[in-house]
UniProtKB/TrEMBL annotation, chain A:
It comes from Brassica oleracea var. oleracea. The keyword Transmembrane applies. Its main location: nucleus. This is F-box domain-containing protein. The chain crosses the membrane at residues 7-28.
From TrEMBL, chain B:
GO terms for cellular component: nucleus. It comes from Brassica oleracea var. oleracea. Keywords: Auxin signaling pathway, Nucleus, Repressor, Transcription, Transcription regulation. This is Auxin-responsive protein. Aux/IAA proteins are short-lived transcriptional factors that function as repressors of early auxin response genes at low auxin concentrations. Belongs to the Aux/IAA family. Its main location: nucleus. PANTHER family: AUXIN-RESPONSIVE PROTEIN, AUXIN-RESPONSIVE PROTEIN IAA17. Signal peptide: none annotated. It is found in: Nucleus. Homodimers and heterodimers. The keyword Repeat does not apply. GO terms for biological process: auxin-activated signaling pathway; regulation of DNA-templated transcription.
Length: 642, 329
C-alpha cells in the first residue's frame, strides 16, 4: 500500500496534514520554494503514483487537485485556518474549498472580504453581540446587524444554503432578502436574535422551496399572529426541523396538522407554549418519526379518554431522543412521559415547575440521559437520583427557579453537584446556579471529575465566601483548573481574590472562555489572566475592581483574543485611548449610556468592549457607543453611517 | 511622572507579586498617589485577619432593612476624610420609592460597583455625578471598595425573577444572576399564572380557554389585555367569526348600560349565542353581571354557547341552576 493510496483514501484530516506537511517540506527543500518547477519525479514518497505523462506536464495543477481533495477532508475550521497560513498556494486552495464559514465576531472582518474569499461557501455562521448581552448588559441598538452580511452574500454567493446567526439583529428585510436571493436555501437557525416579525418568517416559509431547518431559538420576535405557518406551500415537504418555541401567538391547528402530514422527513419539532395539551395528540399522530420534540403547554385539563389517547400517541414515538418544552407541566401528567424515558438522551425540564418528588419519578427512568436541563426545584435529593440512575450524563444545567433566595425552601446546595460529579463518570459540562458554595465541594468535584470541559458555577450571592470557613473560593477553583486539564470554558463566582486568578492564569492552559463577576481585588487579577491562559479567546468581566494597568501591560494579548468585555470596572478613558493607539488592530469601544459632558482622561468608563478586527472601526455605532480613534488628537470617533 | 512612565515603572517590577501589589498600592490606576495610599494599606493583600474582621461586620446586627448601611458604616465613611464626605454628597438618597429607600443607601455604599448603580436607571443623574468627580470618588472607591463589598450581607443581593413578590429592599442588579432574559420572562409568566391558580392576584397575562359549541378547537385569551367587556367581545368575535352565522352586526348601543355587558349579550344573542363563564366554584354563569375587574378575578373558563342551551342559566349571583353535564354537552 503506497503512500499514494494513503494520501487519497485516508479520511482523517490530521493524518493527511502531517503527511502532507512532510511531503511539502521535502518539496520545498528540493525545489527551492518554487512550486512552478515541481516535478513528480522528485517526490520519492510517492513511488507508486502512476500518472500519465500529460499529468506530469500539468505540474501546476497537480498540487491543487490533490490538495483540494485532501482539504476536502479537513473539517474543523481551526485546522483550515492553520492550513491557510502555510503558503500562498495552500491559502488559495483552502479558500476555494471551504464550505462552512464561521465568523465569531461579525465586526472582526467585513462581509465583502468573506464573501470574496470563499467562493464555495455553503454555510455561514455569525455571532454578533457580546455574550453579556444575554443578561441585559448591552443596551439596545448596540449593533450586530445581519443586513450587511445578508446583502453581501446575496450579491456574491447565491448558492449559500445555510445561515446561522447568534445574538444579531435580523430584520424582516433580511429574511425577505434571504428568501429571494438563495434559491437552494436550506437552513435558517436564529439564536437569541431580534428585530424581525412573523412576516419575515412567513417570507422564508413561502419562498424557500427546499427549506429543511427553520429554528428560532429564544428569539425576540414581533409576533403578529400565527398565520406564518400557513405560508408553507402545500408542495413543501422537505422540512426536517422546525422550532418556533419562542413565539407567543397561536398557530392554526389545521395548518400545523397538514404541515406535519406532508413532512415525512421531519425529525425535530418544537412547539410554542400556546399549543395546548389537548391538541398534542393529534399532532404526534401525524409525526411518529420525531427524534426531538418540544411540547407546548402541558397543563390543560384532559378527560380520561384524552389522556389515554395522548399516552398512546407518546408511546408511539419510538425514535424520540430529546424532549423539551413541557411548560407548566402538571405532576399528574408525568406518568404520560414514562414510555419515552428509557430512550431519552436529552431532557429539558427547565421550564417545568415540577417539584422534586415528581422529578425523581421521572428521572429515575431515564437511564440513557446525556443532557439534562432542570430547575433548582430538583434539589439535592433529586440530583442524587440523577447520580444513581443517569450514568451516561454528559451535560447538566440547573437553573434558578426564581424563588426569593432567603425565603427559599428549595434545598439545592453544593451537595447536589458533588453527588452528580461522583456518580456520573462522563459528566463534562455543568452550569449550576446555587446560593452558596464551599471550597471542599469544589475540590471534591474536581477530584471526581477531571474531565470537565465546561464548568460554570454561579453562586448567586455576589462575594459569597465559602459558607463553612468564610474563606474565599480561591482554593476550590484552583482545584478545578489544576485537575481539569481540558477545561475550555469557565465561569467563576463567589468571593475570589487575586490568588484565584493567579491559579487560573497558570493552570488553565486550554481555557478559551472565562466569565467573571464581582471578583478580585486589584489589577493583578487581570494581569494574571492576560499573562497566563495561553488559549484565552473570550474574556468577560463585570463589576471587578481594576482596569488600566493590567490592561495596558497586556495589550498585546488582546490581539490574540476574540474579545474582551469589561463593565463596571475601573477603566479610565485615558487608558482606553492609550490602548487604542498602541494596538491598531483592536477596536476599543466605549459604551456609555450616561456620558459626562466632558471626558478627561481620568474619567472612568461604564463599559468597554475590545475586539480584534481587520475591518477597522465600525460604521454603525449608535449614539452611546464610541470607538476610540487611533490618532491621539482625536478623542473618540463615532462614524454613524448605517 | 507622566502616567506613561508611571505605568512603565509598574511594568518593570512585574517580577514579584508582592512588588506589584506594592506598586499598585502606591499608584492606583489614575496615578494618584496620595489620598489612596493610606486607605490602600487597608487593602494590602487581604490578610486573613482583615477578612475576618471585615466579615464580622457583615454579621453585625444593623437597624433597617437588610442591605442598608448601618450607622457605624456611615461614621466610618466620615472618618475617612473629606474626600469621602464629598462622595457622600454625590450619592444623595434616592427619592420617592420607599421600598427601595434602603436599597438606595446600599447603592450609595456600593456606588462604585456600577452594577448596582446601573439598575437605578430611574435616576441616572446620580450615577452620572459619580463619574464626574473622579478625584474624590475614585480614590474613595479604591479604598472603601473592600469594606463595602464585605459589608453587603448575604443573600440580599440577587435579583428575583418573581416580580409578583414585593420587591422590598432588594436592590436589583442588572443582569444578575446571569439568567437569559428570555428565560426570566418565561418564568415570570409561569409564576404569575400559577399565582392566578392559587387565587393570588398577579399582574401578568391571564389566559383562559374559550370554547365554542361546534368549533373544532379551543382558543385562549388573555383577559388582562382587555379593559372591559366590549373589548373582550370584539376579540372573541374576531376569533370565532368563522363559526358564527352571518354578519355580526353592531346592534346599537341600548344606551341603558355604560358597562357594555348588555351590548355583549345583545351581540351574541343576535346570533343566538351567549357567552358564559365558569367561575372558581365550577359553576357556569352568564357573562356580564359583574364589573370587569371582579369578572377577571373569578373567571376560569369561557364558553360560547348556543342560546337554547343556556336556558335556565341564570346570571350571577344565582348559580347552580344547570347541571354541569349539560354545559359540557
Amino acid at each position: 500500500m503506497g503512500a499514494s493510496s494513503t494520501l487519497l483514501m485516508v479520511s482523517h484530516g490530521h493524518c493527511l496534514l502531517c503527511l502532507l506537511f512532510s511531503v511539502v517540506r521535502f518539496i520545498y527543500i528540493k525545489t527551492f520554494n518554487s512550486f512552478d518547477s515541481f516535478r513528480i519525479k522528485s517526490l520519492p514518497s510517492l513511488p507508486s503514483l502512476s500518472l500519465s505523462p500529460s499529468l506530469v506536464l500539468m505540474d501546476r495543477r497537480f498540487p491543487f487537485k490533490v490538495l483540494e481533495h485532501i482539504f476536502s477532508f479537513v473539517d474543523s475550521n481551526e485546522d483550515r485556518n492553520s492550513v491557510s497560513l502555510v503558503c500562498k498556494s495552500w491559502f488559495e486552495t483552502e479558500r476555494r474549498t471551504r464550505k462552512r464559514v464561521f465568523v465569531g465576531n461579525c465586526y472582526a472582518v467585513s462581509p465583502l472580504k468573506v464573501a470574496r474569499r470563499f467562493p464555495k461557501m455553503r454555510s455561514l455562521t455569525l455571532k454578533g453581540k457580546p455574550h453579556f448581552a444575554d443578561y441585559n448588559l448591552v443596551p439596545d441598538g448596540w449593533g450586530g446587524y445581519a443586513w450587511p452580511w445578508i446583502e453581501a452574500m446575496a450579491a456574491r454567493r447565491p448558492f449559500l444554503e445555510e445561515i446561522r446567526l447568534k445574538r444579531m439583529v435580523v430584520t424582516d428585510e433580511c429574511l425577505e432578502k434571504i428568501a429571494a436571493s438563495f434559491r437552494d436555501f436550506k437552513t435558517l437557525v436564529l439564536t437569541s436574535c431580534e428585530g424581525f416579525s412573523t412576516d419575515g418568517i412567513a417570507a422564508i416559509a413561502s419562498t424557500c422551496r427546499k427549506l429543511r431547518d427553520l429554528e428560532l431559538r429564544e428569539c425576540i420576535v414581533d409576533d403578529l399572529g400565527g398565520d406564518w405557518l400557513s405560508y408553507f406551500p402545500e408542495t413543501s415537504t422537505s422540512l426536517v426541523s422546525l422550532d418556533f418555541s419562542c413565539l407567543d401567538s397561536e398557530v392554526k391547528l389545521s395548518d400545523l396538522e397538514r404541515l406535519l402530514s406532508r413532512s415525512p422527513n421531519l425529525k425535530s419539532l418544537k412547539l410554542n407554549r400556546s399549543v395546548t395539551l389537548d391538541v398534542l395528540e393529534s399532532l404526534l399522530r401525524r409525526a411518529p418519526q420525531l427524534v426531538e420534540l418540544g411540547t407546548g403547554s402541558f397543563s390543560d385539563e384532559l378527560d380520561p379518554e384524552e389522556i389515554a389517547k395522548l399516552t398512546k400517541a407518546l408511546s408511539e414515538l419510538k425514535q424520540l431522543k430529546s424532549l423539551s418544552g413541557l411548560w407548566d407541566l402538571l405532576p399528574e401528567y408525568i406518568p404520560l412521559l414514562y414510555s419515552l424515558c428509557p430512550r431519552l438522551t436529552s431532557l429539558n425540564l427547565s421550564y417545568a415547575t415540577v417539584q422534586m418528588p415528581d422529578l425523581i419519578d421521572l428521572l429515575s427512568r431515564c437511564s440513557k440521559l446525556q443532557k439534562l436541563w432542570v430547575m433548582d426545584l430538583i434539589e439535592d435529593k433529586g440530583l442524587k437520583t440523577v447520580a444513581l440512575c443517569c450514568k451516561e450524563l454528559r451535560e447538566l444545567r440547573v437553573f434558578p427557579s426564581g424563588a426569593d433566595l432567603d425565603e427559599t425552601d428549595v434545598t439545592l446546595t453544593e451537595q447536589g453537584l458533588v453527588s452528580v460529579s461522583e456518580g456520573c463518570p462522563k459528566l463534562e459540562s455543568v452550569l449550576y446556579f446555587c446560593v452558596q458554595f464551599t471550597n471542599a465541594a469544589l475540590v471534591s468535584i474536581a477530584k471526581n471529575r477531571p474531565n470537565f470541559r465546561c464548568f460554570r458555577l454561579c453562586v448567586m450571592e455576589p462575594f459569597a465566601p465559602d459558607y463553612r470557613t468564610q474563606q474565599p473560593l480561591d482554593e476550590g477553583f484552583k482545584a478545578i483548573v489544576e485537575r481539569c486539564k481540558d477545561l475550555r470554558r469557565l465561569s467563576v463566582s463567589g468571593l475570589l481574590t487575586d490568588k484565584a486568578f493567579e491559579y487560573i492564569g497558570v493552570h488553565a492552559k486550554k481555557l478559551r472562555m472565562l466569565s467573571i463577576a464581582f471578583a478580585g481585588d486589584s489589577d493583578l487579577m487581570l494581569h494574571h489572566l492576560l499573562s497566563g491562559c495561553q488559549s484565552l479567546k473570550k474574556l468577560e468581566i463585570r463589576d471587578c475592581p481594576f482596569g488600566d494597568t493590567a490592561l495596558l501591560e497586556n495589550a498585546a494579548k488582546l490581539e490574540t483574543m476574540r474579545s474582551l468585555w469589561m463593565s463596571s470596572c475601573f477603566v479610565s478613558f485615558g487608558a482606553c485611548k492609550q490602548l487604542s493607539q498602541k494596538m491598531p488592530r483592536l477596536n476599543v469601544e466605549v459604551i456609555d449610556e450616561h456620558p459626562p459632558k466632558t471626558r478627561p482622561d481620568s474619567s472612568p468608563v461604564e463599559r468597554i468592549y475590545i475586539y480584534r478586527t481587520v475591518a477597522g472601526p465600525r460604521l454603525d455605532t449608535p449614539e452611546f457607543v464610541w470607538t476610540i480613534h487611533k490618532s491621539p488628537e482625536v478623542g473618540v470617533s463615532r462614524l454613524s453611517i448605517r | 511622572m507622566s502616567p506613561e512612565e508611571e505605568l512603565q515603572s509598574n511594568v518593570s517590577v512585574a517580577s514579584s507579586t508582592r512588588n506589584i501589589v506594592g506598586v499598585l498600592k502606591e499608584h492606583n490606576y489614575l496615578g494618584l498617589s496620595d489620598c489612596s495610599s493610606v486607605g490602600s494599606s487597608n487593602l494590602s493583600g487581604l490578610a486573613d485577619d482583615d477578612k475576618a474582621t471585615i466579615s464580622l461586620k457583615a454579621t453585625e446586627l444593623t437597624l433597617g432593612l437588610p442591605g442598608s448601611q448601618s450607622p457605624a458604616r456611615d461614621t466610618e465613611l466620615n472618618s475617612l476624610g473629606p474626600a469621602k464626605l464629598d462622595e457622600k454628597l454625590f450619592f444623595p438618597l434616592l427619592p420617592s420609592k420607599d421600598e427601595i429607600c434602603s436599597s438606595s443607601q446600599k447603592n450609595i455604599a456600593s456606588g462604585n460597583k456600577r452594577g448596582f448603580a446601573d439598575t437605578m436607571d430611574k435616576v441616572p443623574v446620580y450615577t452620572e455625578k459619580n463619574w464626574m468627580f473622579p478625584e474624590a470618588v475614585v480614590a474613595t472607591q479604591s479604598v472603601i471598595k473592600k469594606e463595602v463589598t464585605q459589608n453587603i450581607p448575604k443573600g440580599k443581593l440577587s435579583t428575583t425573577n418573581n416580580s409578583s413578590s414585593p420587591p422590598a429592599a432588594k436592590a436589583q442588579i442588572v443582569g444578575w444572576p446571569p439568567v437569559r432574559s428570555y428565560r426570566k420572562n418565561t418564568l415570570a409568566t409561569t409564576c404569575k399564572n400559577s399565582d392566578e391558580v392559587d387565587g393570588k392576584p398577579g399582574s401578568g397575562p391571564l389566559f383562559v380557554k374559550v370554547s365554542m359549541d361546534g368549533a373544532p378547537y379551543l382558543r385562549k385569551v388573555d383577559l388582562r389585555s382587555y379593559t372591559n367587556y366590549g373589548e373582550l367581545s370584539a376579540a372573541l368575535e374576531k376569533m370565532f367569526t368563522t363559526f358564527t352565522l352571518g354578519q355580526c352586526g353592531t346592534s346599537g348601543a341600548t344606551g341603558k348600560d355604560v358597562r357594555n355587558e348588555t351590548k355583549l349579550k345583545d351581540l351574541l344573542n343576535g346570533k343566538d349565542y351567549v357567552l358564559t363563564y365558569e367561575d372558581k366554584d365550577g359553576d357556569w354563569m352568564l357573562v356580564g353581571d359583574f364589573s370587569w375587574e371582579i369578572f377577571i378575578g373569578v373567571c376560569k373558563k369561557l364558553k360560547i354557547m348556543k342560546g337554547c342551551d343556556a336556558i335556565g342559566l341564570a346570571a350571577a349571583p344565582a348559580p347552580r341552576t344547570m347541571e354541569k353535564s349539560k354545559m359540557r354537552a
